[in-house]
Write a structure and sequence with these properties.
Order of helices and strands: HHHHH
Strand content: under 5%
Largest sheet: none
Helix content: over 70%
Distance between the termini: 46 Å
Number of strands: 0
Low-confidence stretches: none
Radius of gyration: 18 Å
Number of helices: 5
Mean pLDDT: 79
Structural class: mainly alpha
Length: 128
């Protein structure tokens, strides 16, 4: 079967995840969400220990590097690991960002900041 354009470089085509291996992408998606869970649990204590600003930059950097490495992964295990890291860093980053913004806001504006950060996570309000 001939594929053209962007369809040649999908994970399904790259590692031949059809027929007997068609369940693997579902497992990789589960690994991503396990990373989300780990990132949310770990981001708070890590940010408390090392500081919010440092963790904000660290999580964002690891997220970008993991995504880049995952796009050039040579085997499915490396791809699964980078998907886990992307999941962990994405929610860890958002968690630290929300708390950091809330801590910088005082008094009457705090409720507005919390609402704004929740809407940003739902992509209702653009980030600026």
């Amino acid at each position: 079967m001939q594929l053209s354009g962007q369809l040649k470089n999908t994970a399904i085509h790259r590692w031949d995840l059809v027929c007997s291996s068609k369940y693997v992408p579902r497992y990789i998606q589960t690994v991503f969400f396990m990373g989300n869970f780990a990132g949310v649990l770990a981001s708070g204590p890590i940010a408390d220990t090392f500081g919010r600003k440092f963790c904000y930059c660290l999580f964002l950097t690891i997220w970008i590097v993991s995504g880049f490495i995952g796009s050039y992964a040579t085997n499915i295990y490396l791809w699964a690991f980078t998907r886990f890291m992307c999941g962990a860093m994405s929610l860890g980053y958002n968690n630290v960002l929300s708390v950091y913004g809330t801590e910088l806001t005082t008094g009457n504006w705090r409720a507005l900041q919390v609402g704004k950060s929740q809407c940003q996570e739902l992509s209702i309000v653009p980030t600026f």
